[in-house]
Amino acid sequence: MTASIPAMNRELAERINAGAKRDPHSPYVGKFVGIANGQIMAVADSWREVSRRLRQVEPDKGFLPISVAAYLQLLDWTARQAMPGKQGSTPSDAPPILERLRLSANTWCELLSNFGRLFSTAAGHPRIVDTTRSRHGHRRFHVTARVRELLPVDP
Length: 155
Hints:
This protein has about 160 residues and is mainly alpha-helical. It folds into 2 domains: about 1-65, no CATH class; about 100-155, no CATH class. About 45% of the residues lie in helices and about 5% in strands. It has a two-stranded antiparallel sheet with strand order 1-2. The longest helix is centred in the first third of the chain and has 18 residues, at about 5-20. It is elongated and about 50 Å long.
């Protein structure tokens, strides 16, 4: 049975990440890698360049079709890497990103998929948005009731 394209992309991304962790001389250390159709399609110094190259190959596709959970793991792994030009990294003993943010996966997904409806003029935790005023007119910003449900203020 043939593996699906997303599974092939995921497997390749995992092999690239593992190889870059093991070998400091890997051609992928400190680089951005674009994967499509189970193949490396672009390796560049900037995400913008990878994005440009991928759009040439697959103009109507996303970059790496992986689940939200896998994306968050990749995001968390990336934050933990020390790279030239990067000001710091997340300590290896820090909890996973959603634990640090104190968000459930469902809350994160809802915030992402409904971002435009949930946040109109200012985005952030209600505690911060409530104390922020516009630069012009010094008006208070507001968040929706749903944002307050998703991101309750700690007692």
